Amino acid sequence: MNTSLTTVRARVASFIAPEMVGELIEQRDAAARLANLDALTGLANSRALDLALTSAEADADVHIIVFDLNNMGLVNKRCGHERGDLLITMAAHHIKRAAKAHGYGERVFRRGGDEFVVLCPARVAEGIRCGAERKFGTITCADVRVSLTGSIGATFDDADSRLQLRKHNQKARA
């Protein structure tokens, strides 16, 4: 560490009452935890995902499940953003439960908007995807059908490409 930085830290520390140090450390740790959480869902956020992907992509056994809620733009327009937020929260709950059932509840992230990501071994990925989709089901709001679609890939780009193809095929069948 830089000597001048160490000196500055020592001087600042001399102004802090010893009994305040523990409280300040707790506040710093709480702020660090909040910086990695999504406020709406309580899941880890995209910042935490970026950090996790760095190490996950080096592990050949880690697969990525990308989930997306279908028709959320229409829901927000017709039913309002409060209803949309409720559906996002419900999706987060079902994805986390499905991942937790396989021991990967702490590896669920909200990437942003209506998109979620789960990092897990290939052997449980399909079970998590199917479980979350099944539990969420299809919800209708002002004649808009909302469903959860997930796709699995070895990399984020792979999973995202498969998700777009899967959603396209679902629309073509509807």
Structure explained in plain terms:
By secondary structure, this protein is an alpha+beta fold. The protein has 2 domains: 3-34, no CATH class; 46-173, Alpha-Beta Plaits (2-Layer Sandwich). The chain is 59% helix and 20% strand. The chain contains 7 helices and 5 strands. The protein has helices spanning 3-15, 18-34, 46-56, 72-79, 81-101, 122-136, 156-173; strands spanning 62-69, 108-112, 115-121, 138-141, 144-153. It has a 5-stranded antiparallel β-sheet with strand order 2-3-1-5-4, with helices on both faces. β4 (138-141) and β5 (144-153) form a beta hairpin. α5 (81-101) packs antiparallel against α6 (122-136). It is globular, with a radius of gyration of 20 Å.
The global form is globular
Q: What is the averaged pLDDT score?
A: 86
* Domain module count: 2
How much of the sequence lies in strands comes to: 15-25%
Q: Give start-end ranges of low-pLDDT stretches.
A: none
Considering the chains and any ligands shown, give keywords for the structure:
174 residues; 20% strand; 5-stranded antiparallel beta sheet; alpha+beta; 59% helix; Alpha-Beta Plaits; 7 helices; globular
List the helices and strands and how they pair.
Elements (H helix, E strand, L loop, with lengths): L2 H13 L2 H17 L11 H11 L5 E8 L2 H8 L1 H21 L6 E5 L2 E7 H15 L1 E4 L2 E10 L2 H18 L1
Antiparallel strand pairs: 1-3, 1-5, 2-3, 4-5
Helix pairs in contact: 4-5, 5-6
Provide a concise account of the structure shown.
With 174 residues, this protein is α+β, with helices and mostly antiparallel strands. It is 59% helix and 20% strand. It has helices at residues 3-15, 18-34, 46-56, 72-79, 81-101, 122-136, 156-173, and strands at 62-69, 108-112, 115-121, 138-141, 144-153.
